[in-house]
Amino acid sequence: MKISIIALSTVFALGMISSAQAVQGNYGKVHFWGEITESPCDMPPSELNKDVPMGQVSDSNLNQGIKSGMTAFTLKLTNCNSATLTTTKTSFTGEAGPTAVANSFAVKQAGINMADVGLIMTDMQSVKVVENAPVVKPGVSVDEVWTPFNGTHLLEFGAYLQGIPSGTATAGLYTSDVNFSIQYQ
What we know:
CATH architecture: Sandwich
Oligomer: single chain
Structural class: alpha+beta
Signal peptide: 1-22
GO cellular component, one term: pilus
Domain Fimbrial-type adhesion: 31-185
Pfam family, one: Fimbrial
Organism: Superficieibacter electus
Order of helices and strands: HHHEEEEEEEE
């Protein structure tokens, strides 16, 4: 009987030891990626594909030709370091908006271009009165001069929706995709 108790105790102790061993955990990998560019500045990941929420806009105002409120946004350049390059030239390209809304980018609902609403972009750099902000024409560069061109710089822009009088804007979600490129001189 003593041997049985000792044998049982040994089996029990070995069972406890094996259950205290490590259990397989989680595993995987982390993939880092980016791009090395010929540029005097870095552009953080948050700036590469921006989402700019513009809020809710009244369809009846757009259909009366009233523009929506301005939504400001920036493109942030960091770690700028250049003694010779002091100017940025920012260009915006994308699908053109309706011809009745001059210098606009296309606005889509459910993937279809809206016929009477366009997205207008503005250059907000050093503008004191938002209403005086010059329109950024699609494909035409906006020049900004920096002296000195070191550190962090914010390129400031704005956007609003513009409808036409007697338009046919309808309520619903909308999107507008605009590409940007920055050149340095």
